[in-house]
Amino acid sequence: MVVNVLLPFVGLLAAALLWAAGAGWLTSVTPIAASFAPLPTLEALWLLLQGHDLWEHVAISLQRVGVGLVIALVLGIPLGVLTGLSPLFSRSTTPLFQFARMISPLSWMPLAVMVLGVGDAPVYFLLAFAAVWPILLNTAAGVAQLDKNWLLLARSLSATRRETIVHVILPGITAQILTGVRLAIGIIWIVLVPAEMLGVSAGLGYFILDSRDRLAYSDLMAAILVIGFLGYLLDHAARSLHWRWLHA
Amino acid sequence: MNAPLVPVAALVEPADPAARQTVLAARDVGFAHAGVGTIFEKVSLSIRRREIVALLGSSGCGKSTLLRVLAGLEAPATGDVRFLDQPQTRPHPRSALVFQQPSLLPWLNLAGNVGFGLDFAHQPASDQESRRQRVTAAIEAVGLKGREGAFPAQLSGGMAQRAALARALAREPELLFADEPFSALDAITRAEMQTLLVDLVHRWHTAALLVTHDIDEAILVADRIVLMGGRPGHLVQEWTVDIPHPREDFPSEVTALRLSILGALRHA
After folding, report:
1. Signal peptide: which range, if any (chain B) (predicted)?
2. Alpha-carbon distance A156 to B94, whole Å?
3. Window A:174-203, CB contacts with B under 8 Å
4. Which residues neighbour B194 within 8 Å (Cβ) at sequence distance 6 or greater?
5. What global pTM score does this model have?
């Protein structure tokens, strides 16, 4: 019992020890690296958590994640349903989607800034572009896996196309959509930080670069911890949403 | 003022089944699949009120396809199907379907599943209260009262098929289409469900078309048995079953009918 509760912490503890050892070795080479060590980092984190700035950066980043995810859902679900329902649409778009999906969203960054200008818009674009594929593909797979009898049932009730989509297809693929959302959140969170390193003046990505420029390396390490922790929480939230839908 | 007296006899359905109103009438119906060719042809079949017709045939003889055509899910290639004397172009709101699998929607509880689709645009207009009453009555009729809040995953196979039956009953159908509804159940549950079906059809004054490959099921349940066979499929022979229920009490009559059907199968 106790072992089971403690096991997840073994890896974390091992990482912390490696971190301390690595920072110690690096400090012997370049003294400035002392601020990378765990203790100064935790100190910086404590101060940051008490202050205002970090929370603002976190709020802005989370808001961008939300907007990016919503755009991805709004585009990905209808396209996924269409892909799942229409073999014609599926066949004519699959190569395009597979092609576009394999382009790192970050490679669009210069173009996005040129077209959409400096500010939030290019970040939204990059996040949505990164997140739309897992949602689209999982939605399409969900539609393809729908119980054929559910559709027959809808037809036997002379359901309109809209009724079939709203009452059978969408609830029938919610589990797959939530799987897509979970994958999308993982990707968005990873793309977010580099996407915030260009043309914006707030957010966790910006905070990382800003800390570097201020030579506040402990802040930088603290921001890395915060990013990891928030990502963990987001994934956990997406997972529990999925679980709760399946166990309603 | 004297209200005009309605003769009581006019309200009571004639005891003789042949004199009852026809619910479904198929005339010279045929169906073909692209690539497969003709599935069945020249099928004429009518089903009257409160009558259970068993459509008996081996696997792959086209009986499930015939059911889909008769239910309005597929348009016939030839011939026509009339429901309550109207040409049928899509599933009639007063018909209901039961499949081999319960096919309950896992995100709805029992009451939600039984009431599913009652408020759809092409269903007869109804207010929420009457829909609720129909759902309650249907759940009670199949013996699932008290489990309205249960989700499909919490129901056993037999209970799920009862729920599927309730979903069909809630539509107060004139005709119940059932495609091998009990073949996925264990023998004991199947026997229970067969009894329940006969009971429900009599109490709810509906008719039923039961597609089955089980000769015993056809004999125990049906008022009329239609044998389908051949390639392309067609109706081979028909039996009227006038053995009283429960038919388990009349073994010699049942055996005689069974032998007659087996004989017809051998020659089909």
Report:
1. none
2. 10
3. 174
4. B182, B217, B220, B221
5. 0.77
Does A4 touch chain B if contact means CB atoms closer than 8 Å? no
Burial of residue A243 (number of CB atoms within 10 Å: 0-12, 13-18, 19+): exposed
| Residue A25 domain flag | no
Please classify residue A29 by burial: count the beta carbons closer than 10 Å to its beta carbon, then call 0-12 exposed, 13-18 middle and 19+ buried. exposed
Task: Give chain A's domain count.
Answer: 1
- Find residue B234's DSSP bridge partners: B229
Q: For tokens 């056993």, what's the residue?
A: B156
**Cβ-based contacts of B117 with chain A (< 8 Å):** 153-154, 157, 159, 163, 167
Cα separation, A204 vs A210, in Å, equals 10
CATH number, domain with residue A63: 1.10.3720.10
Contact list in B for residue A169 (CB cut-off 8 A) is none
d(CA A176, nearest CA chain B) in Å: 14
Structural element, H or E, at residue B22: strand B22-33
Sheet holding B175-179, edge to edge: B95-98, B175-179, B207-212, B52-56, B224-229, B234-240
* CB of B121 less than 8 A from some CB of A: yes
Dihedral angle, C-alpha A83, A86, A90, A92, nearest 10 °: -130
Supply the ipTM of this predicted assembly: 0.81
Which pLDDT value is given to residue B149? 92
pLDDT in tens, B171-184: 889 999 999 998 88
